[in-house]
Design goal:
heterodimer, A: alpha+beta, 3 domains, 13-stranded mixed sheet, 6-stranded mixed barrel, 24 strands, disordered N terminus, B: alpha/beta, Rossmann fold, 7 helices, 10 strands, globular
């Protein structure tokens, strides 16, 4: 605004007068065409609000770890067992790696190891707490990451065993107003001493501990025997003092590993250094501190945000330019009265910028209003840090200038080009020029709308397909209880629990499992048929289960027999494999039963087991992945969950029975449960959210597009008022007129769909290729999208067309 | 005051020249009241807008107050026309979004007159044309005659030496038309040169000279 008024300003101060005059005209124009202006401004406002919402979400995903000053110099060291691409990457490294790296590599300034206890039982007097973000860490965690200590006993509050730091909010939760320092709390049969309190960690970071116990505490609570051979638990971060690529660091660390272990071990393990700020979005390592984000969704959402913004902007430009054609006469008169073209161009630009400004202001208000609602709805925690970012304002200013200038430039240069005589002599046709331009805008708007709606339907179909897909097991009425195998005699305790549970009529079956079928990946191990060469080694997924596993999960045995306690050998020497595993061995289901298999173990040991049965294929993981060969074996020492199959429709009584039994058998451990089908559906929570976001934004897109269409048709109808009047006098009926006005736009919609089809088909196929199991894209959702867009358009158009067509022709003819 | 020498105006369309004005030679003295007459399509309006510097001749020379207008660029033309020439149109051409007062003020703003002087000038003209009571109305709240009154007021507010009127009464009834013509005559008597395009012999009679155009030529 200032620049513009400055432009007008000259010695006499007349420039401001002219500017004021122009603004007056602009505002009166706006008020005169209330519907038009409202559509125009509101459309851009909601478009902007919508895309800002997505932008903040995306920005949130991209801005991880920026709270840590050293973030750029930190690598997180993950470890891959087995070097094929198939092998799993574990987020945790060997406990000995960090200390060795610091003492032997000059580039490593500092290391810190974090071990997470996801269900830490804290006892404080007679109160029990179950903490999910309980860290064990080296004292250096305070140097490597930005953690602000508020008070502490000494300069090394994490140096001794049983030292523990609390976050401020945990300290308040436990002690209220009382002084926490020096107090103690009980954790897994140990007494921990509070040595400090730190400020709650806000912002986006994986490092969000609520309690930090010293690493030495971990060494006592969970002693690990082999400091170099054991990995997966110690999330290890190295702070470097020099620039180094991940590749270089990998070489150094591998050398270090080989030096400390053996050439052979170095062959089996790959060290995977990951740049700390990239871990959240890019890492595929499992067992990380928090769930990773998803890069492709960041891209997807960015695209959607961009689309919505483009639609809204196109709309605005479209309506603004359409409206400006009414003003060619004003331009002509002003020229006659002595206005120069330059000042007229600036008038239109200024007007467009002011209008854009109003829309943006409204958009930001809308955004502020919907922001907490949307974040609540999507259950994402996003702070207000975006307000501090340069990018946020850059987007707003960028949109302001782009939309403002584009919507202003066209009328500015087009309208002011006319010779004033033509406009004052009414020689410029009232039919607006730039019809081609406007058609292109309408077509792109509708193409995007169709794409978004089509996408929404396909995402819904895929979601529905996955949720209702028969993964080969019965997931109804299965209660899953978390179980910790770490206690002493966990296997005996499990047997007691199982026996007591089965005493109830409501409980049909109980099986402990290492990992839950259909939900998460399980260990991979190599094995081969007896009497085959070592080169015939296969990689399969192993899951430790109980005898009742097949029945509990409703898995179907198709050859051989189930595990049976009466065979003493089943405890250690029997496996059941799935059909895919059978195929992997190159046999058929009957042949394989009774065959012996060699499973190589650590230290060149190997065990010999017999295949006793073949189970029908079931999905090991989410349907993003295909079915893999699976080996089931009995292993009650490593149950992390207990699956309890209950009778239908008794969930509440069965649950209270389960709780009572649990309290009875395992009184000092927390009970937490969930239903298998809920867990299963939760696998697709990301897709659920995407679906929700797509639904909201495709509706928004079509709404904006329809608003634009409403504006354009009412404009055309007014433009052609006289023509409509004459046609009616000549005998056309209302239907004929409606058809006349509608056909033009409906034709544009057809063109849009022709453009949208291949484009959206390509994009959706790309999205679907992430899934091993995918619903086919049929023509139906596309047709549905098209019908929806066409219907909305038709209703919009014909409402305006009908109004114009039913007006008394005499009025419009006399109008001139 | 005005001298047109061998003025030609043509449009070229696919190498075919369509002439609108042919070999126009015309001298106009200050204080004259000239009526340009002729059948539709004779080039009357074109001639008027040429004189008003809203259009340029294809050929020939145009001197306005001895200035060679045909050699001027757009900016200079605009300077010249806004200080010396006022226009009155058949369709009034008031800016619909502006009130009567604001419409009258607009040419003065373009002449960069300061606000005090502008106020005085607009007040004065509202008085002279007896439309003080209408100053806050918008054009569509006025009758045709009243609109044209404002149109004329707007044309004379910057005290031009020349008023160009394109069928000023074409859209008015006889009574209103007569009022406007008397107004123009009155202005002319006070020294303003007036050139009007008209179909009406009655209106032409207000002037002291008639220029007849036919097919682009001046009929002698």
């Amino acid at each position: 605004m200032r620049i513009i008024s400055k432009f007008y300003l000259d010695k006499s101060g007349i420039g401001t007068e002219m500017f004021r005059n122009n603004i007056k005209i602009a505002l009166r124009n706006l008020l005169k065409q209330k519907l038009f202006s409202a559509i125009n401004i509101f459309g851009l406002a909601i478009g902007l609000a919508g895309s800002l919402l997505i932008t903040v979400f995306v920005w949130n995903e991209l801005s991880y770890e920026s709270v840590h000053e050293n973030a750029d110099d930190i690598y997180r060291i993950a470890v891959q067992f087995g070097k094929s691409d198939e092998s799993m990457i574990m987020a945790g490294a060997m406990p000995a790696l960090g200390p060795a790296a610091k003492s032997e590599l000059p580039e490593v300034e500092e290391f810190t190891r974090i071990v997470l206890d996801r269900a830490a039982p804290i006892i404080l007097g007679d109160q029990k707490f179950d903490e999910k973000k309980f860290f064990f860490a080296d004292g250096s965690i305070l140097d490597v990451f930005n953690i602000d200590i508020l008070k502490k006993v000494d300069n090394s509050p994490l140096s001794d065993p049983f030292d523990i730091l609390l976050s401020q909010s945990i300290a308040e939760k436990y002690f209220g107003e009382r002084e926490p320092i020096g107090q103690t709390l009980r954790y897994r049969d140990q007494t921990l001493k509070i040595t400090g309190v730190y400020e709650d960690i806000r912002g986006n970071t994986q490092i969000k501990p609520e309690l930090i116990a010293s690493y030495k505490t971990k060494e006592i609570v969970f002693p690990s025997s082999n400091e170099w051979g054991n990995f997966g638990q110690d999330i290890t971060y190295l702070l470097l003092n020099t620039n180094m690529s991940a590749k270089q660091l990998e070489e150094r660390l591998t050398t270090l590993l080989v030096k400390n272990t053996s050439e052979q071990f170095g062959e089996m393990i790959r060290i995977v250094p990951e740049h700390f700020p990239d871990v959240y979005l890019n890492s595929i390592a499992i067992g990380d501190l928090i769930n990773h984000g998803n890069k492709s969704y960041v891209y997807l959402f960015t695209t959607v945000a961009l689309f919505v913004l483009i639609i809204a902007s196109l709309n605005f430009i479209n309506l603004s330019t359409a409206r400006s054609f009414r003003r060619s006469r004003e331009v002509g008169i002003k020229k006659v009265l002595g206005a120069q073209r330059k000042s007229l161009i600036f008038q239109f630009l200024a007007e467009a910028l002011v209008l854009t400004f109003i829309a943006l202001f409204l958009g930001i208000l809308l955004f502020e209003f919907f922001y907490p609602i949307l974040t609540g709805y999507l259950e994402v925690q996003i702070g207000f840090e975006y307000l501090k970012t340069f990018e946020f304002y850059l987007i707003i200013v960028g949109v302001f200038l782009t939309v403002g200038l584009l919507s202003g430039l066209y009328p500015a240069f087009y309208l002011t080009r006319f010779n004033p005589i033509k406009t004052v002599k009414n020689e410029v046709e009232s039919k607006p020029g730039g019809v081609g331009f406007r058609k292109v805008l309408v077509v792109s708007q509708f193409a995007i709308s169709i794409l978004l709606i089509f996408g929404t339907i396909v995402i819904y179909q895929q979601l529905d397909y996955m949720k209702s897909y028969d993964i080969g097991l019965d997931r109804d009425n299965v209660v899953i209880v978390n179980y910790s195998p770490k206690a002493e005699n966990a296997d005996i305790r499990y047997e007691t629990l199982k026996t007591k549970l089965l005493a109830s009529n409501d409980i049909k079956n109980v099986s402990g499992v290492y990992t839950l079928p259909g939900l998460s990946s399980v260990e991979k191990q190599t094995l081969r048929l007896k009497d085959t060469p070592e080169s015939d080694q296969k990689v399969m997924r192993f899951n430790g289960v109980d005898f009742s596993f097949l029945q509990t999960f409703g898995l179907e045995l198709i050859a051989g027999r189930d595990f049976d306690k009466s065979f003493s050998t089943d405890q250690k020497e029997a496996v059941i494999i799935n059909e895919t595993a059978v195929k992997e061995f190159g046999m058929n289901n009957e042949e394989i039963v009774g065959k012996q298999v060699i499973i190589p173990g650590a230290n060149n040991e190997q065990s010999l087991v017999t295949v006793i049965g073949v189970v029908k294929d079931f999905n090991v993981e989410s349907l993003h992945k295909g079915i893999e060969p699976v080996v089931l074996y009995i292993n009650p020492q490593r149950f992390y969950a207990v699956a309890i199959k209950i009778a239908p429709n008794v969930s509440s009584t069965a649950l209270s029975y389960i709780v009572d039994t649990w309290e009875n058998v395992i009184p000092n451990e927390d009970f937490s449960y969930s239903f298998l089908d809920d867990k299963y559906n939760a696998l697709y929570s990301t897709e659920d959210k995407i679906f929700q976001v797509f639904t909201i934004f495709s509706l928004l897109a079509i709404y904006i597009a329809a608003l634009g269409l409403l504006g354009l048709t009412s404009f055309t109808a007014e433009q052609r008022r006289k023509e409509i009047g004459i046609r009616k006098v000549l005998g056309s009926n209302v239907i004929g007129i409606v058809r006349l006005l509608s056909m033009e736009y409906l034709r544009l919609i057809i063109i849009s769909s022709v453009i949208a089809l291949p484009f959206s088909y390509y994009l959706l196929n790309k999205w679907l290729s992430d899934f091993a199991y995918r619903a086919a894209i049929s023509w139906i959702p596309f047709a549905a999208a098209l019908v929806l867009v066409a219907t909305v358009s038709f209703v919009t158009i014909s409402s305006q067309a009908f109004r114009a067509a039913s007006a008394n022709p005499i009025d419009s003819i006399k109008y001139e | 005051m005005i001298s047109l020498q061998n003025i030609e105006k043509y449009y070229t369309n696919k190498f075919v020249k369509t002439y609108v004005l042919r070999n126009i030679n015309l001298e106009i003295e200050e204080g004259e009241f000239i009526s340009i007459m002729g059948p539709s399509g004779a080039g009357k309006s074109t001639l008027l807008y040429l004189l008003g510097m809203l259009d340029k001749p294809s050929d020939g020379e145009y001197y306005f107050l001895d200035e060679p207008v045909h050699k001027f660029n757009d900016r200079k033309l605009s300077e010249l026309h806004k200080s010396y020439i006022g226009f009155v149109f058949q369709q009034y051409h008031l800016i619909e979004e502006l009130t009567v007062y604001e419409n009258l003020e607009t040419p003065l703003i373009y002449q960069k007159m300061n606000s005090k002087e502008r106020k005085a000038r607009v007040g004065d003209i509202l008085d002279r044309f007896n439309i003080v009571g209408k100053k806050d109305l918008f054009p569509n709240q006025l009758s045709g005659g009243q609109q044209q009154l404002v149109g004329v007021a707007r044309a004379v507010i910057s005290e031009p030496k020349l008023i160009l009127a394109d069928e000023p009464t074409g859209n008015l009834h006889t009574d209103q038309g007569e009022e406007i013509m008397k107004l123009l005559k009155n202005l002319n008597e006070k020294g303003t040169t007036v050139i009007q395009v008209t179909h009406s012999k009655v209106n032409a009679a207000y002037g002291n000279r008639i220029v007849n155009l036919k097919d682009g030529w001046i009929e002698r």
